[in-house]
Write a structure and sequence with these properties.
This protein is 30% helix and 40% strand. By secondary structure, the protein is an alpha+beta fold. It has a six-stranded mixed sheet with strand order 1-2-3-6-5-4.
C-alpha cells in the first residue's frame, strides 16, 4: 500500500467543514504554518481555530476491501484578550473556556460522510498535556488552547 496524501487533504478539509458547523462563532482555517495566521489576528476578531497537520499517518486494509488512514491534527483555539482591567479580562476568559469544552466534546466517535463514499470518524479530541489553556500565550495577551484530534478515514482503494 502506498502513501496516499490525498486522504490527508480529504480528512483535513472535512475536519474544517465540521468545525465550521460545530463552532459557527469562530473563524476556522487550516494551515501548514499556523503561527503566520496568528500575526494578522486583531483583538476584535472572532476566536480563531487553526487546524494544523501533525503528519502521522498509517494505512491498513480492513474487511470489505476498505482502507483506514489514521491522521492526527492539532487544533489551536486562539483569541487575543481585550480586557482593560482584571475583571474585564476574567469575564472574557470565562467566556472562552466553554469553547474548549465544546471542541473536546465535539469529537467522540462522530461519523461524517464526504464525497466519493469516503467516511470519516473523528475518534476523540483531547487537550494537549491536559491543559485547558497555555499560560505562555496568556502572558502575551492571548487565550490559546491546543487540542489533538485523531481522524480515521475509510476509503476504497
Amino acid at each position: 500500500m502506498s502513501y496516499n496524501s490525498n486522504s490527508i487533504v480529504t480528512a483535513w478539509t472535512a475536519l474544517k467543514t465540521y468545525l465550521q458547523t460545530l463552532m459557527p462563532e469562530c473563524t476556522v482555517q487550516r494551515s501548514y504554518d499556523p503561527l503566520v495566521l496568528l500575526e494578522s489576528v486583531s483583538e476584535t476578531d472572532a476566536p480563531l481555530i487553526v487546524i494544523g497537520l501533525d503528519g502521522r499517518q498509517t494505512e491498513k486494509e480492513t474487511n470489505g476491501g476498505m482502507y483506514r488512514d489514521s491522521v492526527d491534527f492539532t487544533l489551536m483555539l486562539f483569541k487575543k484578550t481585550t480586557g482593560q482591567t482584571d475583571a474585564e479580562t476574567l469575564t472574557e476568559l470565562d467566556a472562552l473556556v466553554p469553547l474548549v469544552e465544546r471542541l473536546v466534546n465535539g469529537f467522540s466517535n462522530k461519523r461524517v460522510e464526504v464525497v466519493g463514499g469516503t467516511r470519516l470518524v473523528f475518534m476523540e479530541g483531547v487537550t494537549l498535556n491536559g491543559e485547558v489553556y497555555n499560560i505562555d500565550w496568556f502572558q502575551q495577551g492571548a487565550f490559546v488552547s491546543f487540542l489533538q484530534v485523531e481522524v480515521q478515514l475509510f476509503r476504497k482503494n
